[in-house]
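To: structure desk
From: M.T.
Subject: fold request, one chain
Message: Could you run this one when you get a chance? Sequence is below, nothing fancy, just the single chain.
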Amino acid sequence: MTARPDTLTGELAEFLVGLPPTLDDRLLELAGRYTLDTLGCIVFGADQPWSRAAATHALTTGGDGRSAVIGAESSTTPAMAAFANGAAAHAFELDDVHEEAISHPGAVVVPAALAVAEETGATVDELLIAIAVGYEAMGRAGIAVGPASHMLGGFHPTSMSGVFGAAAAVAILLGFDAAQLTAAFGIAASLASGTMEFAASGGMAKRIHAGRAAEGGTTAALLVANGLEGAADGLAGRYGFCRVFTSEPHTELLTEGLGGRWMLDEITIKPYAACSDIHPMIQAAQELRFEHDLSADTIDRIEAFGPTKAATQNSLDGTASVMAAQYSAQWNIAAAIVADPRDPATYAAERIAAPELAALQDRVVSVEASPQFDATYAWKMGGGVRITLTSGEVLERQVHGQKGSMHDPLMPEDVLAKFQALTAGRPALDGLAAAAVGRAARSRSGT
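Reply: Done. Structure tokens follow.
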């Protein structure tokens, strides 16, 4: 294969394959922190019914291999282990986010990298380097596709741009050169898929989107390893990913600021098991609850404000399903007043239609788009609530840059505490995953 550094895809690939010898300790520490968070999400998510369905599919169709399906005490081929573990990572809306790209990189990149690292016998540091490269590739693809128009056009960014993150991570573990990674990107562009229809008519398809992206990117890289050639400009070409799946491409962002702007610096670690676009609303409601000792019987009505995306795709009845509860602005605002969105058990199927929650959800009378939050979407998420009390008093709060985001990050000890809470009472990790957890848990320095 011949390198094509004259294309934006080739230029990005050339930069990425040159990273392993020079990646500094700060970036490795961040990669370790996000790996720790993602592995916690996988352990917790593996027990969900949709994750069990994904694991069963992986184990019955994947064949023999050394890549573990976490929670199943079995192993399979790298691509199918990546699928199952990616589905588990994304199973309960707990996985990390690159806000501007509107995607979940950990749930895609970590499962793909771990699966191939187990197959190849990689070290923890080699795993973390591959993960750092995968985050960079997925984030770059995600911001270059024009994420707001991409998502409002009906595409789910995690499953779409995720294939490039998985392909890059696997490519590093397989020792690819720039030409081979460019080819993998070209193939991955043909494997990108996933729509937002789950936000309109439900179902469980969203739960496998990260897994499908992890599988697709892994497959793309393995095909290149077996000699298959891909397009030379799969990301930015005339019919490349960043032009086909959007009305507002920004292909220049594939390479702008390479080596100065790092996607790893822009990751949100979630404190709530809900769509991150509504986290500012949840935080605003919860702050007012604690400051004013609010309860359901003190509230007459609530108005919510956020970006157009949230007003369009997150305004729904949260009592319909667990997925709906995790996506609904109204439901989560109500939960912030009468329950605890920081506790994943709040979103359990038997609790989402509790009478007090349902009644207060009905008093969230509107979710309106606000120009000020559109102006910074999705680089800096914003939202707020206006609560009118039965006394007539009106309380307002806005949050611009929510807790857990790069604007107000969780500390390393908070991330470890989240991991410990998610994995408590569940089967322990072993092998390379356990080694990665140990490395990350020992690190306490800040970003």
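Reply (cont.): The beta strands are 67-69, 74-76, 97-98, 267-268, 299-306, 364-369, 382-389, 394-400. Let me know if you need anything else for the meeting.
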